[in-house]
Specification:
With 372 residues, this protein is α/β, with parallel strands linked by helices. It has one domain (2-349): Glycosidases (TIM Barrel, Alpha-Beta Barrel). Helix content is 24%, strand content 14%. It contains 7 helices and 11 strands. The strands form 2 sheets. Strands 1, 2, 3, 4, 5, 6, 7, 8 and 11 form a 9-stranded mixed β-sheet that branches. The longest helix has 22 residues, at 81-102. It is globular, with a radius of gyration of 19 Å. The model is unreliable at 286-372 (pLDDT under 50).
Length: 372
């Protein structure tokens, strides 16, 4: 199980990074920063039922008291980098200590900080400092739009990638079209095309480490793969979601450098959730090859084929959702053993005061550098 813990930067013109605790202790939903005691308690609960735990500190930008009203950290570039990264390192060190106390398996120093990923010296210092506080594997999640700009992959043990690559502009894309889209997709109005598969493969080859899809999902609606990261409303089409899931697995499951996928999001309030839909059949499925392991329709019975790498776990809660009881979140997962590294694919979520799930995507622990 992976936990995200959230802090806040007041605005894009601010260097201040601070926790956002609830002003009303009786209603923790008003704040978005989980108390250390809650994180320790939830980690212990997860470990008691045999789950490994990962932890990722994150932040949102903006003054509003809800996750949905804030701005994405990937668009934030600190006006005074030294001042900001000093505070960011303090945050990371604090949670690295907490990760050690909680028996966390893997600690992520950040996620999708696209506009500040080029402060290489600062990031190397943050990773180095985190290692002084946490003895296990340390990782970072790269934004899918800028994998080539990630220049310090040698500093971490685990590389995750959000994988919201557009694959097809069709309202009802076929499986063949979606699979082809991983290798060649053309944005409307543009001449050139992108090769998402090559981009992911290059990231793996560059750093010599397995690549995890730490965050990806598709809506159960028409145009499922035109803008996968967006939540535009379209008519329902559960089969389209299923085919998008399957195309991803068909494309990557047999790649030796691929470490698995974490689907966003199990209990999302939008059409993105696979719960009680055909795509749910693919949660935890081991691998996919055309005509082997997956049914050609959305109603068939799955008999997973044997293969060297495995897929995935469902997500505990949608981005910004609060108030989900932990016992429900813990019940909504599918485990898969990762044969290539002997790890466990786990849920990512965050907890409220009563260990309630918050926002995120799953992750998985990996051995330290040199042990793969």
């Amino acid at each position: 199980m992976s936990f995200d813990v959230w802090w806040r930067v007041p605005s894009f013109w601010s260097d201040t990074l601070a926790p956002d605790y609830s002003p009303n202790p009786a209603d923790s939903r008003l704040g978005m920063t989980d108390a250390d005691a809650d994180l320790l308690s939830a980690s212990e609960q997860a470990r008691q039922i045999g789950l490994n735990v990962t932890l990722t500190p994150k932040f949102l930008v903006g003054p509003t008291p809800s996750l949905s009203g804030s701005s994405w950290r990937g668009d934030y570039r600190p006006p005074h980098p030294a001042a900001f990264f000093s505070q960011y390192q303090s945050m990371v060190d604090h949670y690295a200590d907490l990760a050690r106390q909680a028996g966390v398996s893997t600690f992520f120093v950040g996620s999708e900080m696209s506009d500040s990923i080029d402060f290489t010296d600062s990031w190397r210092q943050i990773v180095s400092s985190a290692r002084q506080h946490f003895g296990g594997p340390v990782g970072y999640e790269v934004d899918w739009r800028r994998p080539a700009q990630f220049s310090w992959g040698d500093a971490v043990d685990v590389i995750a990638l959000s994988a919201y690559f557009p694959l097809s502009n069709a309202a009802h894309p076929t499986l063949r079209q979606l699979e082809a889209g991983w290798h060649s997709y053309r944005y409307p109005g543009q001449r050139g095309s992108q090769d998402a598969f090559a981009s992911v493969a290059a990231l793996a080859q560059r750093w010599g480490k397995p690549i995890i899809f730490g965050d990806v999902g598709y809506r159960a609606s028409t145009y499922p793969a035109r803008e996968p990261s967006q939540n535009a409303s379209h008519p329902a089409d559960p089969k389209a979601q299923y085919l998008a899931y399957r195309a991803l697995l068909d494309t990557f499951a047999r790649q030796s450098w691929w470490g698995g996928v974490m689907w966003w999001a199990w209990n999302d309030v939008s059409e993105r959730s696979p719960e009680s839909k055909p795509a749910e059949k693919l949660i935890g499925v081991q691998c996919a090859t055309a005509g082997e392991g997956f049914p050609d329709d959305t109603q068939g019975t799955l008999v997973p084929a044997a293969c060297p790498s495995l897929a995935v776990a469902a997500v505990g809660a949608s981005r910004g959702a609060k108030g989900l009881p932990a016992e429900i979140a813990l019940g909504m997962f599918a485990l898969a053993l990762l044969a290539m590294v002997g790890a466990v694919v786990l849920l990512r979520t965050a907890v409220r005061r009563a260990a309630r799930a918050q926002a995120s995507s799953p992750s998985m622990p990996f051995p330290a550098t040199g042990e793969l």
